[in-house]
């Protein structure tokens, strides 16, 4: 049984929960972070000194934090090819695109775009900064757009861990009130993701509680 600490409307928790859902793992999720608190308690800080979510505990093993590391742990322990390939070269290819997604796409979206649009009161929003941030994000998304002209998923025609690190951002990217560039392959890929039950359950979640 996995125990996961983290609120359902945290994007990092969503990536983790989507993975848990795809792998069909038994779990309990405890709301923590933002309005739920808990992350500043001594018990939580003993698990994760950063005071961030998600944190995962798998049985008696030490608690894990850092979403990318947790996803790799779950894939290594419970995943199978093609989701998490067996050969080193193929696995590293998936890992590379997962890392690319985390560093380039998620970090170009969450604070620079999502927080500026959703977590900032309308009167304090900076349209020029938002436009610049969306332009920077879309420069990265165009790399995926190009790949998705040739592949059903980010790495290949198979759904992999990289799709989780990449795709969980797209619900909010397509849902928030911004002007978006035309990227038909990305849009079609997002449409395919929305057909996955675990994506619907764990990623297509209201973020109203985060609104400024
Ligand atoms: N690098 C960490 C970042 C974790 C992080 O910043 N989590 C956010 C939620 S997405 C958080 O804990 N925010 C504070 C809160 O929810 O109270 C990871 O990838 O897990």
Salient structural properties:
212 residues; Glutaredoxin; 4-stranded mixed sheet; 9 helices; globular; binds glutathione
Secondary structure: elements and pairs:
Elements lengths: L1 E4 L5 H13 L3 E4 L11 H6 L7 E4 L5 E2 L1 H12 L9 H31 L8 H21 L13 H7 L2 H6 L8 H10 L3 H6 L10
Parallel strand pairs: 1-2
Antiparallel strand pairs: 1-3, 3-4
Helix pairs in contact: 1-3, 4-5, 4-6
Bound molecules: glutathione (GSH).
Q: Approximately how much beta-strand content do the residues carry?
A: 5-15%
> What ligands can be seen in this structure?
glutathione
The main pleated sheet reads as: 4 strands, mixed
Spell out the helices and strands N to C: EHEHEEHHHHHHH
Provide mean pLDDT, rounded: 98
Q: N- to C-terminal separation? A: 36 Å
CATH class of the largest domain: Mainly Alpha
Helix content: 40-55%
- Unreliable residue stretches: none
CATH topology of the largest domain: Glutathione S-transferase Yfyf (Class Pi), Chain A, domain 2
Structural shape = globular
Please describe what this structure looks like.
53% of the residues lie in helices and 7% in strands. It is an alpha+beta fold. The chain folds into two domains: 2-78, Glutaredoxin; 88-196, Glutathione S-transferase Yfyf (Class Pi), Chain A, domain 2 (Up-down Bundle), CATH 1.20.1050. The chain has a four-stranded mixed beta sheet, covered by helices on one side. It starts with a strand and ends in a 10-residue tail after the last helix. The relative contact order is 0.15. The mean pLDDT is 98.
